[in-house]
Write a structure and sequence with these properties.
Layout (H helix, E strand, L loop, with lengths): L4 E2 L12 H5 L3 E5 L3 E3 L6 H5 L12 E5 L2 E6 L1 H9 L4 E8 L14
Parallel strand pairs: 1-3, 3-5, 4-6
Antiparallel strand pairs: 2-6, 4-5
């Protein structure tokens, strides 16, 4: 399996990050089998287009939410990497976990 899971939509809140905000995050390596996609639809013409990132970010965008990594942007780039037998790729990761902590059990008195 290439990805950990395939979902339709983002389970996390809107983060409001712009292209400029994403560019400030340093790329890091992530294994593709740790990623959960947020898109179910694949456009074959985009997958085969060599210039699909010409005007965008070179690195896919990933959001960490409640301990899971969601591939927000870069599905076609990830699949191209997998087709080339590369299962680790450089991505920019926005970690929302510190901003939205999961509420724990109430304190015991």
């Amino acid at each position: 399996m290439i990805f950990r899971d395939v979902r339709d939509g983002r389970p996390y809140p809107d983060h409001g990050f712009t292209t400029r905000d994403w560019s400030r995050l340093p790329p890091r390596q992530v294994r593709m089998d740790e990623l959960i996609t947020t898109k179910r639809v694949l456009h074959l013409d985009t997958l085969l287009d060599e210039d699909s990132t010409f005007y965008g970010d070179l690195f896919p965008h990933v959001v960490r939410w409640r301990g899971e990594l969601f591939l927000e942007d870069g599905l076609h780039r990830a699949l191209r990497s997998a087709l080339q037998q590369r299962f680790v790729m450089h991505v920019r990761v926005l970690d929302l976990d510190p901003l939205y902590p999961v509420p724990g059990p109430p304190p015991v008195n």
